Amino acid sequence: MLEDKNQTRTPLSELGEFKLIDHLTKQTKIHHDSTVKGVGDDCAVIDNGGQLSLVTTDLLVEGVHFDLSYMPLKHLGYKAVMVNLSDVYSMNGNAKQITVSIAVSNRFPLEALEELYAGIHLACKTYNVDLVGGDTTSSTKGLLISITAIGQVEKERIAYRSGAGSNDLLVVTGDLGAAYLGLQVLEREKQVFQVNPNAEHELDNYTYLVERQLKPEARKDIVKLLADLEVSPTSMIDISDGLSSEILHLCKASKKGCQLYEDKIPLDQQVISTCEEFNIDSTMVALSGGEDYELLFTVKQEDFPKIKANPNLSIIGHMTDEPDLIQLVTRGGQKVDITAQGWNALDEK
Ligand code: ADP
Ligand code: MG
After folding, report:
1. How many H-runs (helices) and E-runs (strands) does the chain carry?
2. 154 Cβ partners below 8 Å, 6+ apart?
3. What is the pLDDT of residues 70-92, one digit of tens each?
4. 152-175, pLDDT tens digit by residue?
5. Is ligand 1 within 6 A of the CB of residue 23?
6. For residue 57, how far is its CA from the centre of ligand 1 (angstroms)?
7. Fold of 33-153
8. Is 273 in the pocket of ligand 1 (CB under 6 A)?
9. All CATH 3.30.1330.10 domain ranges in the chain, comma separated
């Protein structure tokens, strides 16, 4: 037995996720030259001679990351794969294999796990990925799913979080905020349903939002689009936690600042109308919402003509050589510091 001589008891809430990861991994020693990138990006990067291999893993826990009262198991299986493939695409790579590990309690019948795997198999088929292994074990209560994805990328095409240059354009794919609003709509329905189990579900006005929450698609198409356009992103990250959090990651890793323009943030019409209905700020939702699984990347100014009129891509800002200034330029022209929780309106400069 390893003896625990450490008598201090520091609550994890004092650190938060990112500081905790830093703390646990700061003593990590890399023993192999083939380990090109360890902790700190969307994937680990391993040099296998010709190409670079990409490895990423995510753990989803019932009650923390998903609620089975409105998340059908088939969708959960599909989404669990998407979360991982998105990290591979965000390195500008292609996903090739996954492993799937589950811990499951006897609350789940075989048919439930068949549903889960129907979603996993559909994702593998749609994204041309092979399921090559995993692990199965029991849990005392909930369901846990851990997926590892393996991908490949050519050395000259890999995109790290750390490569953004001053004056590079900041670009985002698709539109933002819908997945978060989809979750709010589903949570609201769940509460109505708990009060009155016979209540009609009224989701007609929110179909896009609910789909973005329950059946997200990772942006494999963007990796191909960028190759076709002959654009090499200087840095890239996927949007799992929200635009503001990902911008902070890119800026920190690249040691750059950023000016993000509020009026350039792409929003679907359903996001705009639902924000009005719920009386919440659509910019806040896009910045802090998360789970959009879009890609956020930077390109050199000279690539502007190649990306400008593309309906998949929105130029939302630019990088600067002032790492301490990571700002949202509001519609009114005010500059507001971007923080991990979104932006602090009290902190206007
Ligand atoms: P993402 O949101 O892209 O999945 P994370 O924020 O989960 O990335 O992780 C950031 C980095 O920290 C990644 O390189 C990941 O592999 C690493 N990491 C996360 N948790 C651990 C852990 N418990 N031990 C070692 N490395 C970790
Ligand atoms: Mg990621």
Report:
1. 10, 14
2. 51, 52
3. 899 999 999 999 999 999 999 99
4. 999 999 999 999 999 999 999 999
5. no
6. 8
7. 60s Ribosomal Protein L30; Chain: A; (3.30.1330)
8. no
9. 33-153
